[in-house]
Amino acid sequence: MSIIIKPIISEKANYLTDLRGAFSFFVNTKANKIQIKKAVEDAYGVKVADVRTMIYAPKVSSKYTKKGLQVGKTNKMKKAVVSLAEGEVIDIFATN
Prior knowledge:
The chain is 23% helix and 41% strand. The protein has helices at residues 11-20, 33-44; strands at residues 4-7, 22-27, 48-56, 60-65, 68-73, 77-84. A hairpin with a 2-residue loop joins strand 4 and strand 5. The protein is elongated and about 60 Å long.
């Protein structure tokens, strides 16, 4: 099971990085905070101070067509905001 899916690159995430040193990631919905902390420390070689998680419910949309009612939904997502220890930095844009 892959814990970290991808980092979040947005204005709000960049603001949190500059202000608090917190980095945002999309993570597996079944991962807990301990697993997320270990995965970030292993992947980036940094010391994690705090992990906060948010679960977003799937969004359901429906529309009426000639064939009748069409219903669809998005996937459930989990987002983790990881605060690092003092002096630690993750370079998200680094290429391997």
